[in-house]
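Posting for a labmate who doesn't have an account.
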Amino acid sequence: PVIPALAVLDNYNRANANTLGGQWRQLIALANAGIRVNGNQAFCVNNGIPAVLCAVGANAYWAGGNINNTFGASQAAAFTFANATVNNNALILKANGTYNAAIGTYQSHIRVQYNNGNVTVATSTNFIGYTTAGTINTGGNLVNGNRLTARVDNTGKVFVWKTVGAITTYLGTVTLPNNALWTTGVGKAGIQLASGARVDNFAAGNAP
C-alpha cells in the first residue's frame, strides 16, 4: 500500500495556550485542557493541577472549527513524535456517536497506539473500553522525530506506516470486525497522548 498524501492541519506554530484552540474538540475544565499548545507542539501537560487531565492520557479531535465536520469512510491521520515520551501515544480514526463532554471522548472510535516497538489497533464502542483487533511490530523502537501514519478504508482494514528520516516503511494491516462503524462509517480523526508527550504536524483527511 502507498502511504496517503495528507495535508498538515495543525503545526501548532502559535503562542502557548492552555488548550489546542477552537479548531479542536477536547475536554476543557476551568479553561484548561490536557493537551495544549506549548513550544510550537501539542503537549500533554504533566505538571501542576492541570496535569490530572493527562494522568491517564487525553484525547483531542480535529473539528476544523465545526464540531459537525467529519472525514469519510476511508480516512487517515498522522503525527510526528516530538520528544522521548513515545509510548502510549495514538492516532484516532472514525470517532463518532455520542460525545461525552465529561471525559472528552466519542463513544465509538479506532485507536492506533504505539508502545514499545508495536502498534496496537483497537476499537471502542463505549468511550473508554478497548477491544484489540491486532498488533503490528514496527521493526525497532520509534523515537523522537519519527512519524506515525494510519489509514482505515471502507472495508475496515487499517494500514500503518512509519517514517524515519526520509524513509517511509509500510508496517502492516489489521482487519477490524465487520461492523458498519469501522467499514462504511465516518467520523473525526484525532490524537490520544500520554502524560508528558509531545507531537507535531498533525495531518488528516479523506484517503480514498
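Reply:
Got it, the C-alpha cells are right above this. The longest strand covers residues 89-100.
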